[in-house]
Every structure is written in structure tokens, then in C-alpha cells.
Design brief:
The structure holds two protein chains of two kinds. By secondary structure, chain A is mainly α. Chain A has helices spanning about 5-10, 35-40, 55-80, 85-110, 125-135, 145-170, 175-200, 205; strands at about 25, 30, 115. Chain B contains five helices and no strands. The chains are: A mainly alpha, B mainly alpha.
Chain lengths: ~220, ~220
């Protein structure tokens, strides 16, 4: 499957497949968010205006865990590919460690919300490809890539994270959760800046936007 | 990100007076966002506004106009104007510092100045949307006496960190939706700035998986 450009992907909008809703049971709330993260919880942007109730904080936080795990899977593939070297390799390793920390931090917040962590992330390349497709990142992770293409893909999945955190921040209710997500979103923004400047030394091309929202 | 140190020294101070501690005071000389002030703002009706405004949500770069209670609107205008004060200060710092930089460092700083101007414009618009009166820049800012490349970069680093702290404090206090979303997008960009300024200083760009502005 040919990979689309970032611009083409973004042109597809944020409307991913809707995630499963929260199931409430005797043991509390189990977050079964779909693979399309916060954007998937909301459906299409047009759906924001309909009568659908906004997602709960537990749903939003669970959706972010799901997306983080998908992105971590991509980092794992990039690092295992063996083509990143030098500063690109050390940067990717550092960013992957951050993503693991983000997941741990988000999961800490779920029990107080009466929710449990979603299941594991993608367990196969095919599952990861499908999950990324729901974020409009159409890739085949099994394909061979050179270093700069891996860096581009990592930048694309960082954009996915930024979009999801950006949307979650606008919807969350609990101030503490908003602050945690803002701190993580700022971290993701730093990731994308470093990845961009590894590929492109011209700052105006690397970071053309004064507003970071994954767009 | 920035070029390697040019070791350039300049012979004039940016402004008379001692370097302001940007972590402790905002651009107007008032304390930044002390906890007591946040509580005061909250007492003014943020909690009610949060409860009332949950249904409002937006994800685009242009915030949707929301119907806020007068109390929430006052809180939002106060918060937005404090951030606007800091943006004015950042614009002053970049404007004064850029002539003391050279080469790629100067080009990057000019890009960041453009970003700060865009942030100030966005905050100006947000205040106006809430029927508030946007703060104007001060006639002068006390930026200390940086004379070398490193001193300028340290000033810019301090200014960017102060902004990050302020945005992280303000975002959870704003009503859900457009304004919060816009501030998160600005926060992300300032987080990128601080990472690349730190890198230019020869320090690690990333200091951890959560960005707090305290680094």
C-alpha cells in the first residue's frame, strides 16, 4: 500500500472510527476505547455538534493510553529496524522512553476515575497498521525504510498524539487531569520539534506553525 | 537546533536595570500565577463555569465562541491578559536579543519571534471575544544587561520557561473548549522553543517526559 504524504493524511480529517463506549459494571468502569483515540471517541468533527454526550474523563484518559501504546509500537519498530544511527538513534530511544513514561502517568490516573487500563497495545504489525489507519496514517510497518523515512513516520505519529492530547485538553473536566495532559502534550510537541529538526535544518520548514495541535 | 556558539559579544545592554526574575514576576511586574491568585480566580466562579461549560467543545485552531457566565468570562479575560502580558515581554526579549545573535541562531530566534507575535495576536483576539480589553505592551521591559550570545539565550530561556509555567497554570482554569484549546496549542509551541533554546545553550533539549517549565 503506498504511503500518503502528511498533508494528504491530514486532509482526511480527524474522523476516525468511533471507539467503544464505557461499560459500567460491578467492578467499576472498564474503558474499552477504540483504536482511533480521543478523536475516535468523538467521531467526526461534525458529530461534535450533535446531541451525543461528551466523553467522560475516564474515556478520554483511556483513549490516550491506547494511542500512546500504538505510537510506542511504532517507536519499537523504528528502533528495531537498525537503520537509525547516531543522534537520530539516541533521540528516538529517548522519545520512546518518554512515551513509556506517559503511559505510566496516564494509567496512574485511571483507578481514581473508577476505570482500569485498556488492554495491551498492538501485538502485531497488521494490528498496528490497522490502528494507525484509523488515525489516517496509512503505512505498512513491515516495509523497509531508510532513516529519514522512519523519522518522518515518527513525526507523523507524534502529530497523532498532539491531535489527541489537544482535543482531550479541550474536553476534560478535572483540572488535575487537564494539567497532566497539557504537560504531556508539551512533551509531544518537543518530540516533534526534535524529529523535525533532525530531518530539516531550515527552521521555517521544520517548524512552520506557531500553534501546535497536530495539524 | 541553533548554530554552534558564535561567541559573539555585544557592547550594549538590552535595557537598564537588573534582570527580572521571570519565574517570579510577570511582564507587568505583578507576581506571575501564585497559587493564592489561582484560588482567588477559582473562587470567582471557575468551578461553576466548568460545570456549565462542559458541553462546549472545539478542536479547531479558531476557538468557538462560547456562552460563558459573567464570572467565568471575567476569569478567562484575567487569565488571558496575564498570558498576553508575558507574550508582550517575550516579544520584547526576542526583539532586543536578536541583534546580539548571528547566523543560524539569529534565524531561529526570528522564527520564534514571529511565533510569539502570532501568540499575542491570538490572545488579543480571545480577550476581545470575551468582551474584555486586551492589555497593551509596556513602554519598556527590564530585561537586564545580556551582552553575549549565551546571556541572550539564557534570557530567552527564562522568558520561555515563565510562559510555559503560566500556560500550564492557566489552561486548567479556563472554561472547556476553544480558549483552552488555543492556549494548549500555544503551550506546545513554547515548549518547542524552550527545548531548542536549551539545545543552543549546549544543554539537553529534553529534561523529562513531563514539561513543567521548572526545568
Amino acid at each position: 500500500m503506498p504511503e500518503l504524504t502528511r498533508r494528504q493524511l491530514l486532509a482526511g480529517g480527524l474522523n476516525g472510527a468511533a471507539g467503544a463506549r464505557v461499560l459500567t459494571g460491578a467492578a467499576g468502569v472498564c474503558v474499552l476505547t477504540g483504536a482511533a483515540g480521543v478523536c475516535g471517541l468523538l467521531g467526526s468533527p461534525a458529530a461534535l455538534a450533535d446531541t451525543k454526550p461528551p466523553p467522560s474523563d475516564a474515556e478520554l484518559m483511556g483513549a490516550l493510553v491506547v494511542v500512546e501504546r500504538q505510537v510506542l509500537f511504532v517507536y519499537g519498530r523504528a528502533l528495531a529496524a537498525g537503520v537509525l544511527q547516531g543522534r537520530a538513534l539516541s533521540t528516538a530511544g529517548e522519545l520512546a522512553a518518554h512515551e513509556r513514561s506517559h503511559i505510566a502517568r496516564l494509567e496512574l490516573e485511571l483507578p481514581p476515575l473508577g476505570a482500569s487500563a485498556p488492554g495491551d497495545g498492538p501485538t502485531s504489525v497488521a494490528a498496528a497498521n490497522a490502528a494507525l489507519a484509523r488515525h489516517h496514517v496509512i503505512v505498512d510497518l513491515a516495509r523497509d525504510r531508510v532513516a529519514k523515512d522512519w523519522l518522518k513516520l515518527l513525526r507523523d505519529v507524534e502529530d497523532v498524539l498532539e491531535r489527541n492530547y489537544h482535543l482531550a485538553i479541550s474536553l476534560l473536566r478535572h483540572p488535575g487531569l487537564i494539567e497532566v495532559c497539557a504537560q504531556i502534550m508539551a512533551s509531544e510537541a518537543q518530540h516533534s520539534a526534535l524529529l523535525a529538526t533532525l530531518r530539516q535544518r531550515d527552521i521555517r520548514k521544520a517548524l512552520p506553525n506557531a500553534f501546535v495541535n497536530g495539524g | 537546533m541553533f548554530a554552534s556558539p558564535e561567541g559573539r559579544s555585544a557592547g550594549r545592554p538590552l535595557c537598564a536595570g537588573a534582570l527580572m526574575s521571570t519565574g517570579e514576576r510577570d511582564a507587568s511586574g505583578r507576581p506571575g500565577f501564585p497559587l493564592a491568585s489561582r484560588r482567588g480566580l477559582l473562587a470567582g466562579g471557575v468551578a461553576a463555569g466548568l460545570a456549565a461549560g462542559v458541553a462546549a467543545c472545539g478542536s479547531g485552531p479558531t476557538p468557538a465562541v462560547q456562552k460563558l457566565s459573567p464570572a467565568q468570562r471575567r476569569v478567562d479575560v484575567e487569565l488571558l491578559n496575564r498570558l498576553l502580558d508575558l507574550e508582550h515581554q517575550a516579544i520584547a526579549a526576542y526583539t532586543a536579543g536578536i541583534p546580539l545573535l548571528a547566523g543560524r541562531t539569529a534565524r531561529v530566534a526570528k522564527q520564534f519571534l514571529r511565533d510569539e507575535v502570532a501568540h499575542a495576536g491570538e490572545l488579543f483576539s480571545l480577550v476581545k471575544r470575551q468582551h474584555g480589553k486586551p492589555h497593551r505592551p509596556q513602554a519598556a521591559y527590564d530585561l537586564g544587561h545580556p551582552q553575549t550570545r549565551e546571556e541572550v539565550l539564557r534570557l530567552l530561556h527564562d522568558v520561555e520557561r515563565a510562559q510555559i509555567r503560566a500556560y500550564l497554570s492557566a489552561i486548567p482554569l479556563l472554561a472547556p473548549g476553544g480558549a483552552r484549546s488555543a492556549l494548549a496549542a500555544i503551550l506546545g509551541n513554547d515548549a518547542q522553543h524552550v527545548a531548542l533554546v536549551r539545545q543552543a545553550l549546549g544543554a539537553p533539549a529534553l529534561l523529562g517526559p513531563l514539561v513543567s517549565g521548572a526545568e
